[in-house]
Amino acid sequence: MRVAILGGGISGLTLAFYLQKAGVAYDLFEAGPAGGNIRSQLVDGYLLETGPNSLQLSDELEQLLADLGLSAEIEDTAAVSKNRYVLRGGQYRKLPGSPPALLASPFFSLKARFNVLRELSRPAAAPDPTETLAHFFRRRFGPEIVDYALNPFISGIYAGDPEKLLLHKTFPRLAALEQTYGSVLRGLIKSGGAGTRRRIISLRQGLQTITDTLAAHLTHYHGHQPVTALLQPAAGQYRVQTAAGIRPETYDTVVLALPAYAAAPLLRPLFPAAAEALAAVYYPPMTAIFTAYHRPDVTHPLDGFGALHPKVEQPYAAGSIWTSSIYPDRVPAGQVLFTTFVGGTQYEAQARQPAAEQKSAVHAELSRLYGIRAVQPVWQYRYSWDKAIPQFDQPIVAAHAAADMLEQQGIFAAANWRAGVGVPDCIRHARLLAEKISGHAG
C-alpha cells in the first residue's frame, strides 16, 4: 500500500507522521510551506500567532507533543486566563465560568437565570437534524443566553453565526443529552458535568514549532509541490500530477488534507457531484489586527484571556485576545498587545474593508472600550484570511455525505471541514485515520 496525502497542514502532517511510525509508505504534497494556517511570526519584537492563538491540551495533542519531543516546550497561559469577558451595555463584564456561577451572577437578568432553571422541566423536542444552535439554545434556555453567551462564543470559536450553524454538526453531545435525559442540565449532572476545563497551552516559540517539527521528521514530505490533478488510471488506483508533471507512483489510497474549496477542483473530473458538495462549504473572511500600547495608557486591568463582543451590541470587531496578559514574554517590556478579530460570518463587511480603515476602526473601538489615552498605538500589524474557518451550516451536510461516499473509492478527507475546526480535533481525526489505513495495510 502507498498513500498520497494532499496538503501539509496539521492534519496531513500528523497523518503522515503516524503512517511513517506504522511503516506505511506515503508521499505528502504541500503547495507552500508546511503548517497550513498554523503560523507564528516574530515581527518587530512581538511574537505573533497568525493562526490559532492557543490550544486545548487534549490527550491526542499531549501524546503528539511527547512523540515529537516537544513536551518541555509547552507553555501554559497565565493564571488570569481563566477570566473571560463579554461586552454588555457598552462595558466589559466577567462571564460566569460555570452553570452554578451563572445562576448566582448578575451578568444575566433574573428572567434569564429563571429560564436556565426552567430548562430542567422543559420537555425534549423530537430530534431535528436541521436545528441550528441558536434555535436549540433559545428553545432550551431563552433569548438572553443566546445573545450574550452563545453568540459571542460561536463568533469567537467558529467565526460563525449560531442562527446558521447546525447543532448536530457542532455540539452533538448537547442534542444527545436532551434526548437521553430530557434536559441538557440534568444530562450534564448525571453524566458527570461538563467535564474538567482542559489546559490552554502554546509552545515557547509559538505553535508553528509543532508543524515545523512534524515536517522535519517526515521522510517523504514534498514541499512547494502543488498537486494540479488527480488521475485514475484504473479502478482503485490513483496517480498525482504536480507542476513538474505526473508522478511515477501509483496510490491505492488518497487523503485530501486540504480545505474543501481546494479539494473540489481536484475531484471534479472524477467525482463531479462530490466536488460540487465540497465547493459549497463556506469559509468567511477574517482579519487579525495586532495593536500595542504603552501599559500606562490603558486603564483597563486586562485581568483575563480576552473579551468577546455579542452581535447585539453592534461592535466593529468580534473581540480581542489580551495577548500580553496570557503570554507576557511575547511583547516588549512595558507594553500591552491586543489581538483583535475582524470578520467572520457576522462581520463580513468589516473584514473586506481596506487595511487602513480596519486599523483605525480597531484603535477607535479599543480606545473607547479599554479607556486608552494614547492618540495612536505604539504599533499595529494586520494579517488576513480570505477564507478562514469552514462553517458547519447546512452545506456541510452534503460535504460530509460526499466524504463518506469517497471513502468507498479509496479517497479520505483529513481536514478541519471534516474533523472539526479545532487543531486538537484535526490531530485526533488524523491519528484515527492513520490507524484505519495502517490496519488495512496490515
Molecular structure report:
The protein is an alpha/beta fold. It has helices at 10-22, 59-67, 99-104, 110-118, 133-141, 143-158, 167-170, 172-181, 184-190, 208-217, 260-267, 272-279, 323-326, 348-351, 355-370, 394-407, 416-419, 423-441, and strands spanning 2-6, 25-29, 40-43, 46-49, 55-56, 74-76, 84-88, 91-94, 200-203, 221-222, 227-234, 237-242, 245-246, 253-256, 286-294, 306-308, 319-322, 335-343, 379-385, 411-413. Strands 8-7-16-17-18-15-19 form a 7-stranded mixed sheet. A 5-stranded parallel sheet has the order 10-2-1-14-20. A 3-stranded antiparallel sheet has the order 5-9-6. Helix 1 runs parallel beside helix 10 (208-217) and helix 1 (10-22) packs parallel to helix 18. The radius of gyration is 23 Å and the shape is globular.
